[in-house]
Amino acid sequence: MKVGIKLKFWGVRGSIPTPGVKYTKYGGNTPCVEMRLSNNKLFIFDAGTGIRELGSMICSGDEKIKAHIFLSHFHWDHIQGLPFFMPSSIEGNEIIILGMDMQNARLDKIISDQMESIYFPVKLQSLSAQIKFQILSEGSNNIDGVKVDTIYLNHPGQAMGYMVNYGKIKICYFTDNELVPKSVTESSKLKYKPDTRERILKLINGADLLIHDAQYTEEEYKTKIGWGHSSFNEVLSLAREGRVHRLALFHHDPDHFDEEMDVLVASCNCQEYQGETSHVMDCFAAHEGMELHF
Ligand SMILES: [Zn+2]
Ligand SMILES: [Zn+2]
To answer: What is the value of pTM for the model shown?
Structure first.
């Protein structure tokens, strides 16, 4: 069997879904990334509104599935699609939800609370599929035979980044992470761990793909310090330093419609970055429906 990974973006928008004609190119669904390993394992990253369509696609076949859903954190845009993930309602399916515990709430409680009758008509306990939970903290984990490294990211209330190591393939999913520029670190009162960037760099070194939050322009970031998201520039410089091969800009700002996104991506000027070192990096903005193969 040839070791490989197929990846598909089902939602790339940050903060809130953005339906409408101004968002048809990049898409309006909130974060969800599907990962298929060549050993048939199904990993899903985040359960934003994009997971609904992924679920419908899965249910169009009759096969029973086992899916691992890795949650970066529990802000609405990352869990809002979970109650609409149809495979959870089918007997014989096995869904494992993975993520961190919060200081005052356990993972299973966070998710079942989301489906309390005030918020949603169907309770988690009444779903027909077998639903399991697996709590993760920072470190190296064996998930169904696959090595998945986890790391805490800079985000209000914290978020978790994931790196899948499969064969020689390394894919990183780091969203809702604020890469704090040096000039800001010194002057700000941010409560983030000061070494987050270094720890991330160690992990992503030479990765085949880095999917990273790039919500703001440098200018926008100045008024959003501490909101837990990064500027394009900081992400590019991190990826270049980590010598990653492909960089997918992700978690697009709801105010960045298609035309604006095109301008922003063009202004990233990846060519310039390539020129500075011998390292060549393929940099692009993820869009809904985009597929990548490794
Ligand atoms: Zn988010
Ligand atoms: Zn968030």
So the answer is: 0.96
